[in-house]
Amino acid sequence: MRGLATGGLDGGLEPGTLFSNPDPAGGAEPGRRGRGGRRGRKGRRGGRTAGEDASTPADGEPSPPASERPLTAEERLQHALKLAYRHLTKRDRTVAEVRTHLEKREVDEASIVAALAELREFRYLDDERYAARFVEDKRRLEGWGHLRIEQGLRRTGIDREIVDRAIAEDPLRGDEAELAVAALEARLAGRAPEDDRARQKALRLLATKGYALDVAYAAVRTYERRCAEREDH
């Protein structure tokens, strides 16, 4: 027995190694996994190797980012409508004004046509309504004559037929002479023109507001007469 123990020690074995349980696969201690265990498989998840982009599809072609994906026709239409609604929140607009706004923002033609059609269908855009309100506001608030009203409407891009109809249907068109006199009253505060120079200035005022020349002359004479009548009383 001693010889066996001695021989084991003489063979270079350390004490206690006769009773150890070495790992035949590579010397790993009991209770531990080698590199081929779970840790070794950590680099592959869901069938992809470590370092492979999760956004890469199975065929190897990367999907384009959402920002680079072409918009659908419906998405382009919704974008055009959003721009148009925002433009309409400030004040009423004409069809031509909204079209120009969308063109400046590089909206494609098909989306512009579709957006304008939808806005007109639901009465967000109505050139006839716009023209009627324009005439009324400029008459009552600005004291404009029909010539300037017509010029202002044409600058908005409204069709000539709609402009002509709005002017013809103006309920105050027949009272333009009195409106011109009222414009002089508001500007001159009841003071009569003292000389021809003052009369010419009054005529230019009415011409600037869009009154025809014959209407302006008649209005100045009427205004002077009324000023004189007030002085007599």
Could you state the order of secondary-structure elements as H and E?
HHHHHHHHHH
Using the alpha-carbon principal axes, give the shape. Answer: elongated
> How is the biggest beta sheet arranged?
none
> What's the alpha carbon Rg, rounded to whole Å?
45 Å
Q: Span from first to last CA? A: 155 Å
The portion of residues assigned to helices is: 55-70%
What's the number of extended β-strand segments? Answer: 0
Structural class: mainly alpha
Averaged pLDDT: 80
Q: Total helix count?
A: 10
Sheet-strand content, in percent, reads under 5%
Low-confidence stretches: 1-59
How would you characterize the overall build of this protein?
Helix 9 packs across helix 10. This protein is elongated. It is built from 10 helices and no strands. It is mainly alpha-helical and 233 residues long. Helices cover 55% and strands 0% of the residues. Residues 1-59 have low confidence and may be disordered. Among the domains are: 72-125, Arc Repressor Mutant, subunit A, CATH 1.10.10; 126-171, Arc Repressor Mutant, subunit A, CATH 1.10.10; 174-232.
Ordered list of secondary-structure elements with their pairings:
Blueprint: H1 2-10, H2 73-88, H3 95-104, H4 109-121, H5 127-142, H6 146-155, H7 160-168, H8 176-188, H9 196-208, H10 213-232
Helix pairs in contact: 2-4, 3-4, 5-7, 6-7, 8-10, 9-10
Q: Can you tag this structure with a few keywords?
A:
RecX_HTH_1st, disordered N terminus, Arc Repressor Mutant, subunit A, 55% helix, mainly alpha, 233 residues, cytoplasm, Regulatory protein RecX, 10 helices, WH-like_DNA-bd_sf
